[in-house]
Amino acid sequence: MNRRDPAIQIADLIADIRYHDHRYYVLDDPELPDADYDDLRRRLLALEEAHPDLVTADSPSRRVGAPPSDLFAPVTHRERLFSLDNAESPAEVAEWLARAERHLDRLVGSLVCELKIDGVAVSLTYEHGVLTRAATRGDGETGEDITANVRTIASVPLRLLGDPPAYMEVRGEVYLPLDEFDRLNARQAEAGDRLYANARNAAAGSVRQKDPAVTASRNLAVWIYQVGYLEGGPALATHFETMEWLRGLGLRVHPGTETVTDVAAVTGYVERVRAGRNDFPYQTDGVVIKVNGLAEQAELGSTARAPRWAIAYKFPAEERTTRLRGIEINIGRTGAATPFAVLEPVFVGGANVERATLHNEDEVHRKDVRVGDQVVVRRAGDVIPEVVGPVASRRTGEEKKWSMPSNCPFCEAPIVRPDDEKVARCTRGLTCPRRLREWLFHFAGRGGMDIEGMGYKTIDLLLSKGLIEGPADIFTFDAEKLLGLDGWGETSVTNLNKAIGAARDQPLGRLLVGLGIRHVGGTVARLLAREFGSMEALQQANEETLSAVEGIGPIIAKSVAEWFEDEDNRTLVSRLGKGGVRLSDPDREKGPEKTLQGERIVLTGSLESMTRAAARTAVEERGGKLVSSVSKKTYALVAGASPGSKLAKAKSFGVEVIDEAEFLRRLEHGTGALDQDISNSS
């Protein structure tokens, strides 16, 4: 063997660097001086520059220097990333555990406690041990491709150790160490740039940089906390065992994870962590408690929002005292007038706070909050600042009581509070500039028409230039008039036009959400779209017809009927149609028959006829639910090409396994189709 062969030299250097990266970033036990380690990297870079055809995708040199991206492509997760339900006391943890044990009809074997890192959730995909993709959490179903940036994070291995599985997605939390956060803000201040409010925000901004070299300069780190999807690999019985296996593959698993047996032990763990919270080199906002057994996790499954087998014990929000300078109101898209506190700036919960919610008029009076008070400010859940109440003992007598203004500060229209509501509202309608602004932002937002690049800044510009006056104008105004304005060149205008063009073909359900009809969120909008199929049919429906739809109650029915009875709203719908917006879901006026009503389907492997997202939609439209874990309650496992470990689990539980052809047949005809075919042939 010729040791001077460049390919062999590169392979040897990569092996050495991976070994030392693992000892330094994962084991925290380096054995090589920094100067010697830097020399290894310099030698590798020199060889790769001389022989670019020998550079591999998983080379340590790829951690820095990938070309900047113009955008982050959408990524559909193989398995959904759920949020967690929260607990704030041992009693709530006990209630959660009791619910789990009732669901299982037996005691839970053991629990796992692990630190809840306050960072950015990511999903990492490894194929045959090589990192092939990294994505943000996004909405749980679809995230953004941030692979180039995550490659720059030294504690994310580009190739796994040992005997990795054929395909694996792991979930983790990317965070910015607090000392790096301080250094970053010092650099920002020196350059005259905006300071980051907290380490989590800085981490979120860092993983979405267009230039990976910027991400690399931030010195981010990661903790891995879960396997999201697995094909191949050993038979694993518990979450703790899984984490140890991941650690052996070279992934960075938090060393503070512990197994416990009961709520008392959970409480002890939480108290130890909370007592040392300020000593950690990273932000943490609680403890995650999980059912340890993987079979138990599968049997417990998930609700629409969160897994039943895990809960987040949130630390009490930090509180600080500051002076209330004034109380102002904001007008939302529905006209709701919401009071908020203007504060002397105070650092609380890891961020500077100058504004805080007061919820509504009744809350201000109930708490007896007065302008000039010293007030207690809390960041509820470490996210939303709120005024807890006044420090009455520190009053001087100069404090002033507050009442809701009689007129809107943005349009001068009367503010009226109906007798049966807690919320006062501006009466001007959408001619109120503030309400219009909020409505347009909602209409163009991700929950609505999802128009990329149309945030508050763009909306404010369009309104100020008189280019739009309402949602329908978005699809007819001349974007070329933006050319030459600050930040608007040909590329920006082209991208905005493309985004608007794509929005014209959004499903009917998204349009219904964007219109901002009271009480109509995503779920209700999809129900209406599925039942009626077009705006024309919805306009003709009365309250009785709407109430007859499963899942639509009388309050929603009344709100929808009244919205469509309004002539201005009918004109808006007509103008949207003239602007090219799709007003119906083609090829069906009503959803398909509920052939899988109440059934739980699990999918493993890939399908030829549809994507996983399409399969989920098809199942849900037919009344079923596509879930991620096999349990005894699973109706059927659909086994596509290259099925994973779920196939063996389904067989062990006695769950029926069907192929893609049978899955498609049952989508159309339901459970009885196969039995009928058999009886006809006999």
Give the spatial strand order of the biggest sheet: 2-11-10-3-9
Q: Given the structure, what is the number of helices?
A: 24
What is the helix content?
A: 25-40%
Low-confidence stretches: 673-682
* Secondary-structure-derived class: alpha+beta
Major β-sheet annotation: 5 strands, mixed
* Spatial gap, N to C terminus: 69 Å
The portion of residues forming beta strands comes to 15-25%
**Compute the gyration radius: what is it?**
28 Å
DSSP strand count: 22
Averaged pLDDT, please?
A: 86
What is the 3D form?
globular
What is the chains' assembly state?
single chain
Q: Could you walk me through the main structural features you see in this protein, from its secondary elements to its overall organization?
A:
The protein is 36% helix and 19% strand. It contains 24 helices and 22 strands. It is globular, with a radius of gyration of 28 Å. With 682 residues, it is of the alpha+beta class. A 5-stranded mixed sheet has the order 2-11-10-3-9. Strands 14-13-12-15-16 form a 5-stranded antiparallel sheet. The termini are far apart.
Features:
682 residues, alpha+beta, five-stranded mixed beta sheet, five-stranded antiparallel beta sheet, 24 helices, 22 strands, 19% strand, globular, disordered C terminus
Quick summary of this structure?
With 682 residues, the protein is of the alpha+beta class. It has 24 helices and 22 strands.
Task: Indicate the topology.
Blueprint: H1 6-26, H2 34-50, E1 74-76, E2 86-87, H3 90-104, E3 111-117, E4 120-127, E5 130-136, E6 142-144, H4 147-150, E7 167-175, H5 178-190, H6 199-207, H7 212-217, E8 221-231, H8 239-248, E9 258-260, H9 263-275, E10 284-291, H10 294-300, E11 310-314, E12 319-331, E13 337-348, E14 351-357, H11 361-367, E15 374-380, E16 384-390, E17 415-416, E18 425-426, H12 433-444, H13 456-464, H14 490-503, H15 508-514, H16 522-532, H17 535-540, H18 543-547, H19 554-565, H20 567-578, E19 600-604, H21 612-621, E20 625-627, E21 636-639, H22 646-653, E22 656-658, H23 660-669, H24 672-681
Parallel strand pairs: 2-11, 19-20, 19-21, 21-22
Antiparallel strand pairs: 1-6, 3-9, 3-10, 4-5, 4-7, 7-8, 10-11, 12-13, 12-15, 13-14, 15-16, 17-18
Helix pairs in contact: 1-2, 3-9, 12-13, 15-16
